Amino acid sequence: MRSWFRLGPATLVAAAFIGPGTVVTASLAGANYGYALLWALLFSVLATMILQEMAARLGIVTGMGLGENLRQLVAQPALKFLLFLLVIAAIVIGNSAYQGGNITGASLGADAIWGDTLIISSIRAYTGLNPWALLIGTLAVSVLWHGNYRLIERCLIGLVLLMSLAFVSTMLLTRPDYGAMLQGLLLPAIPRGATLTVIALIGTTVVPYSLFLHAASSANKWQGVHNKAEALQQSNADLRTSIPLGGLISLAVVSTAATAYFGRGLAIENAADLAVSLEPLFGQRATYLMALGLLAAGLSSAVTAPLAAAYALRGILQLSNLHFRLTWLTIILIGVVVSSLGLRPVSVIWFAQVANGILLPVITFCLLAAMNMAILGRYRNNWRQNIVGGLVFVISLLLSGRSLWLAFAS
């Protein structure tokens, strides 16, 4: 019997794109523009499903991650060198910079739930460091160091389900306007000044490092499986479940912020503000649920971001298992230091955003080329998949061009 819904490697993608950055972006979208930008979320979910289906199919059929396939696809030495530099800049260096935000976001959630206990206060007073960052970094290292792929997948499935429960329950407690929500989903509109927010909503969902993560994790999941058609059916069922679930989480955050802030003349700076401000409006339960969702979002991204960077680097540079572990361990340690000391590496983040803006259309184009390789046989892209993928490529090119212009203009 064919399964239409399941949870698997695509859950890692949902766990990756629902991080503190996405929660903050979605909160600001709802607070500033209500439900008007929900259509951008719907588009980003559809675009993510299109690209991730190709990445998963590539991993399952070839038994290799995207990095390994790119190394074989790009034969010209100069082009290969440029591609490698882009991947290292955007994914490895970029995720190192963003890891501090992931751990900080999880720390804010933990602090909103448990507050300054005696132990936490003592550690902070004597060391000057953020104890929550140390604990969350230790948890991330523990999951990746001791866990095989199956354990990592189960941990992240648990975190995604926890995020879903927390954010959707918070949305229901705030009683959103379902009519306005439906209108925002189906009728595209860009209010005055909302262009940057639209780009941010799409950019936090359709990200290049998730393609490396999904291709490699799918290759691991179905390694040695001879029935490729059945494996692809299972992967597609996983996509139909996990990616829309991630979209539902983002929708819940936008809707909660819209209900709590839009039209009330209130300002919001980050997701922690949203968690704290919900209590006088909707009670203590809403505050705790929102904080719990932020904790789960930060922890899930604190695991997936270094893992994705390690997969990308291993595929391209043919790293050993030891160097694979050292890659994600280094990224986690950088994140802990950045979060503990309250640093904000603005220049590094700017550099990573520029590299990401260049990398997304490049990787999308390379993925489309890889999906037409003869080695895939009957699993190559058909003409419909190429047209849809080409459309996503053009849109990613336009969005990236706009992001790069804004990065240099600022």
Automatic annotation (TrEMBL):
Keyword tags: Membrane, Symport, Transmembrane, Transmembrane helix, Transport
InterPro entries membership: NRAMP_fam (IPR001046)
Transmembrane segments: 36-60, 81-98, 118-144, 156-174, 194-213, 245-268, 288-313, 325-343, 349-375, 387-408
Record's keyword annotation contains Nucleotide-binding: no
GO BP annotations, alphabetical order: iron ion transmembrane transport
GO cellular component: plasma membrane
Record localization: Membrane
Membrane topology: Multi-pass membrane protein
Signal peptide range in chain numbering: none
Molecular function as annotated in GO: cadmium ion transmembrane transporter activity; manganese ion transmembrane transporter activity; symporter activity
Main localization of the protein described in the UniProt heading: membrane
Name used for this protein in its record: NRAMP (Natural resistance-associated macrophage protein) metal ion transporters
